Amino acid sequence: QVQLQESGPGLVKPSQTLSLTCTVSGGSITTNYYYWSWIRQPPGKGLEWIGYISYSGRTYYSPSLKSRTSISRDTSKNQFTLQLSSVTPEDTAVYYCVRRVGVLGYDYWGQGTQVTVSS
Predict the structure, then answer these.
(1) Residue 94: exposed, middle, or buried by beta-carbon count in 10 A (0-12, 13-18, 19+)?
(2) Which residue of 11, 12, 39, 40 shows the fewest CB atoms closer than 10 Å?
(3) How far apart are CA 22 and CA 31, in angstroms?
(4) pLDDT, tens digit, for every residue of 77-106?
């Protein structure tokens, strides 16, 4: 059974960098054709895709967030990390790490972690 668990600070000040880590168990992040994604949901809004890092280490980001986003991985710990710079209160959301299987869609989700941007 694959499990994903987000971790990181729940409160970030404006202009700082938000950093979240997803720890994966029950499967390797280097297994072919899996894409390890970050998705967020601001209060009262729908889901917003942020980006992914693939099984080979390739990254792809939402065009609207690309200039502020970096996703990296530590294969020795089976973790991948989101960094979102220059945050504003509009970045307040529940952040999820999610596994996508090729073109088949998302199959495993973390429980989500609330991040609030406030001074």
Answers:
(1) middle
(2) 11
(3) 16
(4) 999 999 999 999 999 999 999 999 988 899
